[in-house]
């Protein structure tokens, strides 16, 4: 079995890095009180975990049949465990009780199935979790999340052959197979199986060429450090959709790696114009300006990052670079 698989199961699928998934949950939640509690998880910390739990418990005290509050409490406990596994699995048992309570109130909650399968995985009941997801697939046969979750589960269990069969989507009722194949390919890639990933991308392109499909092949070659070939595939993606902005960032990186600084700057500028709030990309652009000797442009970008960021590390880096640019 490859290494990073447990992270693939948890971070990529269910929690999406923890706070990102909390944001998705908050957006889909109808109860204002539950939404407010989940919003605290945008900044995961022991204090915010405690505040969120207190608020969600208050909701349950007022409305015991609130399935969203039960799922929120389960999410907090899962996030606590993934943030600090050394704390033990006691919180996961509570999370399991809350997912079961939510399912008792509303038996057809897809999110409850996903969360419960993750809890079962962490508590060593992997086969039980896999069966739960298989039931979920029969309930939601067109669900993107269920397909991704089931593939990740198979990979985490080491069932590579079954995972390969599943990735073919032969018996799947998912509506957009081209898109689904790319998503499954990305999972294979994150799990450390590049050959299976490329098979998924190729299958997707055989169903019809898309910018997403060619960009996925480009990223696969980028990971293999074949930047010239990756550039070719990213350009194919942009020939189909010139606004496939994710490829701009990848192209900038590839051109930088091949020593084509001006081309790298051109594509990174275009990406930054499309996503002016992506401060990581702006930092990359500032670095490219520095490398090209364009100190004024670099300083202006670092100043924007320093004034905008809420990340202390990013602010510290911007301050450091501005000091060095001033000294030059």
In short:
The chain is mainly alpha-helical.
Query: What does the largest sheet look like?
Result: none
The CATH architecture of the domain at 1-124 can be given as Alpha Horseshoe
**What is the helix/strand order?**
HHHHHHHHHHHHHHHHHHH
**How widely separated are the two ends?**
50 Å
- The CATH superfamily of the domain at 1-124 is identified as Tetratricopeptide repeat domain
Structural class designation: mainly alpha
The quaternary organization reads as single chain
Poorly predicted regions: 1-21
Global Rg: 22 Å
Tally of separate helices: 19
Strand content: under 5%
Which overall shape is indicated by the principal axes computed on the Cα atoms? Answer: globular
What is the share of helical residues? over 70%
Q: What is the highest CATH level, the class of the domain at 1-124?
A: Mainly Alpha
Number of strands: 0
CATH topology of the domain at 1-124: Serine Threonine Protein Phosphatase 5, Tetratricopeptide repeat
Mean pLDDT, rounded to whole units? 89
Characterization of the model:
The chain is an all-alpha fold. Among the domains are: 1-124, Tetratricopeptide repeat domain (Serine Threonine Protein Phosphatase 5, Tetratricopeptide repeat, Alpha Horseshoe); 276-328. The chain is 77% helix and 0% strand. The chain contains 19 helices and no strands. It has helices spanning 5-14, 19-28, 32-39, 46-62, 67-83, 90-105, 110-122, 126-139, 144-156, 160-167, 177-191, 194-207, 211-223, 227-240, 246-257, 261-274, 279-291, 295-308, 312-327.
